[in-house]
Amino acid sequence: MPPRSISTAQASNAAGIPDAGFPPTPEPARRERGGGSGVSWLVVSLTIGIVGLPNVGKSTLFNALTKNDVLAANYPFATIEPNVGVVGLPDERLGKLAEIFDSQKVLPAPVSFVDIAGLVRGASKGQGRGNAFLANIRDASAICQVVRAFSDPNVVHVDGKVSPADDIETINTELILADLQTLEKALPRLEKEAKLRKDRAAAVTAAKKAVEVLDAGTTLYAGAKDAGIELEHLRELHLLTTKPFLYVFNVDEEELANAAFLDELRALVAPAEAVFMDAKIESELVDLPEEEARELLESIGQSEPGLDQLVRVGFRTLGLQTYLTAGPKEARAWTIPVGATAPEAAGVIHSDFQRGFIKAEVVSFGDLVAAGSMAAAKAAGKVRIEGKEYVMQDGDVVEFRFNV
Fold it and tell me: Which residues are annotated as a binding site?
């Protein structure tokens, strides 16, 4: 059978992905061992769990992200059941690709957001709504803490005062306590399994070390390495503090222009990344025509919506990037980890493409745009044939050839 190639809409159909929307959201970015073939392929996605105290702007932010009409009332626990929305990673390259290939539509890389109820101090002991709803973000790739940094007497603070540092401490403490509860329940089972299977001893050791780290008030993402914990052994427990954190500070328009104040907030969470936005303005922006939205951003000294910054920061925090495919049917971005090889990238479209990988025709986005067409890029010697060892670069425009 002659080699086959895959570039655009064929990818959607071959992978069983509905043609009219985003692909089904897989599990968080990781490497899995596939079938009996011995081929290891990537399953990649970006899912961000949104957490915060009540009345900090979580649901307002979520509404703006997804243009949903989730209840966002001015009282604690307006959000009870989790709200899930999928948005696209802002990528101006896709529009240009669609022009070059006369694509009917563009499909950006999907990012899922999960909004849950507000946490309060003592949630682990049943205060507020408790913490059972945290299970809804245990499969998230990262956790986004929304922190209130604006003052408004008409919006009550659950603790009676606005203190970003105290709010962050409260959320971190409750997430740590939730993980300790999970480990407390899991350890007897793990110890029982270790008596029957020697390979489970490593999980017991990792769990006990994790308890020590958490008891010291440190998240596992920050403290696992120094404690010699291999988090792979704890993956099945879906511990919340093993995930990277990023922070959204909900500020008002005046504070958004106060560089010194923003630096203070940034220092609170370093080395984690911080995004600053006025959630109310963000919710207005999504309903405005493009030109009016641009004018509003300029009026508050911003070059792009804070929501766009948040999605990009999420990608960067998780070490993700995108490569591109294009053709008459669609121009599309695919999510892969930085450092992924060409066969692994092909496997994100479908495992068959990795299993039967032959080669990849690759051109950088910049070279393609400069040439004006794929034919011109080939004539100029800008299209390369890459093999199994090629490490993908962000913005590579690719056509895979495979045979299975």
Answer: 55-60
